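Researcher: Watch the backbone:
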Amino acid sequence: MPKNPVVASYVADFLKPDMMHVYRQLTGLRNEIDAHVFTHKRHYAEHFPYHEKWLHLLPQPGMRWLRRFWYKDVLKRPWPIFRTELVKWVEDLTRIDAQVLHIYFGHVAPQFLPLMKVWKHPVVVSYHGADAGVDMDKPGYLEAARDVMKLATQLQCRSQALADDLEKLGADPKKIVIQRTGIPMDEWAFAPRQKPENGAWVFCQSCRFVEKKGLDLSVRAFAKVRERYPNSRLVLVGGGPERPKLKAIIEKLGLASSIVLTGFRSTSDVKKHVLESHVYLHPSRTGADGNREGVPNAMLEAMSTGAPVVATYHGGIPEAVTDGVNGLLVPENDHESLAQAMLRLIEDDSLRERISNAAHESIRDGFSQSGQSRLLIDRYKALMA
């Protein structure tokens, strides 16, 4: 029986709770590619089980704090791997007979510039959102990003919006490909929503609590909706640095009894909350540091179940959501328009049903895990050839 070719991937933290999309991409290769993973930290092994033979735990770099200080604060540029690490990387990649190195994500890739200069096989770099915008106003970081784009064989972007950002930074458009998030359609199956009694509408948003997710906009918009539908609820699934600020807004608006903050939850619990909701919210915005979305994975999962989505004209979202067809879109940072769209959905039964069906169909046709895994396997094999 012929041996599968090997792709080595570097993921600094394997894996954070909001990196299910990476896990699906890696596990989708199993039948045709041996996907080895190199990482410095192993997290949530119970949620992200992986073939231990293919998982390589790297030691933490010596004097890491000093290295970070010297490059970040003094030289003001990303730090590279040292020569001893470079030698070890070449040895390890040779030992497993890796034919492609895939680096997650764009902002991490500058560390590997020394390796990209000497390794003779193709290097792929993934861009998923913030890694195409944050720190690009700093000359040292911009120069390193351009070096990565010059040396990499292929630049994979989750959205055309990210691809456009890379081109503006100087990337060769011939190197750029769109590699969408893959959603397992059997796990996120279609589930019709029933109109609730007594106006007890349930809205949901699941994400990491960071500025670009627009959670404060969801809360303020929900306050407007609740004026008309006092029995409605908002469920916010996740956690992160914005949680204290969010709680303060909720308390100030007197919404503590109507808004549930669940904290981080397992995939099955997230799915339960999504299926129990009537409308899904994702009002993304560009953060103050330039952090942007690719195409939000959680939003795609909700759409796969038939959840009517209200989101924003932001990043790659319009590549997945067409306003009035499979969701509703409003401008960034406009909670009034967000509230109007929420009300429009819950008060128009025909629109809600039409959008629900179209949302599921659009994920099936353009974002299924099986389709995206096939595309990625074919791309790896083409690079190997």
